[in-house]
Design goal:
The chain is of the alpha+beta class. 20% of the residues lie in helices and 24% in strands. The protein has 7 helices and 17 strands. Bound molecules: the ligand Nc1nc2c(c(=O)[nH]1)N[C@H]1C(S)=C(S)[C@@H](COP(=O)(O)O)O[C@H]1N2 and molybdenum atom. Molybdenum atom binds next to loops.
Length: 345
């Protein structure tokens, strides 16, 4: 004998099954229409407003070596965004991890028998380390940390802000294993008067040496907490780094934006002065006054006088991952909804 409440429970279950079926089907359709059918936004506020209704950037899905199909922003340099569904798990799979390079000539092959990590500059004992030296001579350090592009979600700004028009998928969380940056620096012996350590990768652009278009360079100042937890990682989620994410070595600076997480790291250069290269002095600067969130207004920028400084720690962010609005459509009144997402500080 079934009571009224049993019946209503069975009815809800049927409803739920129907709703889930519809969800799966419509999500698949939405994924396709999101990436292919919708027109690419052109410049302008209307386009920005349209892009803001999408969770991901509206680019095509492309499949590059070691990667699942990811959303392409540009192909030279490679910039790929992670589709929303991969954020259902706390850690982002290596094959789904977003990709961002600034310069077109990033490495496609690295010979570990000749590869060296160089420590030079304002140090007592310059070093030239093999990949195997890092594995053998230093204590491994493992840390789980979010790598997020400073431009993540940029396409949602109105008016538009210059730079890659990312949706929300220019971020990922991984377990990184490597050598503490401080352990490497101690081996080289940092001299008194050192101000920062400059990080250089194997990637190159077409410009003349010394210009931002030639090499992507970032620095970590000694007079900050950036070095405290920083590691030079040789493993990502327990595997070698994918080429597009910086094989064989990358810097990990937990809590700080990805702009400092130099990939395909080949030189650690200790400087006796502040780093004035383009990527520190001109690019990646945000308003430093006010409430500390880097906020400003177009009017204040146009009026001038907004003080800028290097971008630093990531603010708290959170994202609803499911249900995916594009796929669900209307939710039946009274039906419980499980909301899943990610948040990090
Ligand atoms: N060598 C090198 N490292 C780099 C960059 C680069 O252009 N060259 N870009 C940085 C920026 S801005 C981002 S967002 C991250 C992206 O890391 P990922 O490609 O592993 O996701 O790499 C950082 N490290
Ligand atoms: Mo970035």
């Amino acid at each position: 004998m079934s009571s009224a409440s049993d019946l209503s429970r069975r009815q809800s279950l049927q409803l739920l099954t129907a709703a889930l079926g519809a969800t799966v089907a419509r999500t698949a359709a939405a994924q396709i229409s999101t990436h292919v059918d919708r027109p690419l936004p052109t410049d302008g506020d209307a386009a920005a407003a349209q892009a803001a209704t999408l969770w991901n950037a509206p680019g095509p899905l492309v499949t590059l070596p070691q990667k699942l199909p990811l959303i392409q922003l540009t192909d030279r340099p490679v910039q790929l965004e992670t589709p929303r569904a991969y954020f259902l798990s706390p850690r982002t799979p290596n094959a789904a991890f977003f990709v961002r390079w600034h310069l077109p000539l990033h490495p496609r092959t690295v010979d570990l028998s000749t590869f060296r990590l160089t420590l030079e500059g304002h140090v007592d004992r310059p070093q030239s380390l093999r990949f195997s030296d890092l594995l053998r001579d230093f204590r491994p350090q493992t840390i789980t940390a979010v790598n997020q592009c400073a431009g993540n979600s940029r396409s949602r700004f109105t008016p538009r802000v210059q730079g890659s028009q990312w949706g929300n998928g220019a971020m990922g969380c991984a377990e990184w294993t490597g050598v503490r940056l401080r352990d490497l620096l101690s081996r080289a012996g940092v001299r008194a008067g050192a101000v920062c350590v400059q990080l250089e990768g194997l990637d190159r652009g077409v410009g003349p040496a010394g210009y931002g278009s030639s090499a992507y360079l970032k620095s970590l100042p000694f007079a900050s907490d950036m070095l405290d937890e920083a590691i030079v990682a040789y493993a990502m989620n327990g595997e070698p780094l994918p080429f597009l994410n910086g094989f064989p070595l990358r810097v990990v600076v937990p809590g700080y934006f990805a702009t400092y997480w130099i990939k395909a790291l080949s030189v650690l250069r200790v400087l006796p002065a502040a780093d004035e290269n383009f990527w520190m002095k001109t690019a990646y600067r945000i308003p430093i006054d006010g409430d500390g969130t880097g906020n400003t207004t177009p009017a204040a920028m146009a009026a001038g006088g907004v003080r800028l400084g290097p971008i630093g720690r990531m603010p708290v962010r959170s994202f609803i991952v499911s249900p995916m609005a594009e796929g669900v459509g209307k939710w039946p009144r009274g039906l419980p909804m499980v909301v899943r997402g990610q948040a990090f500080s």
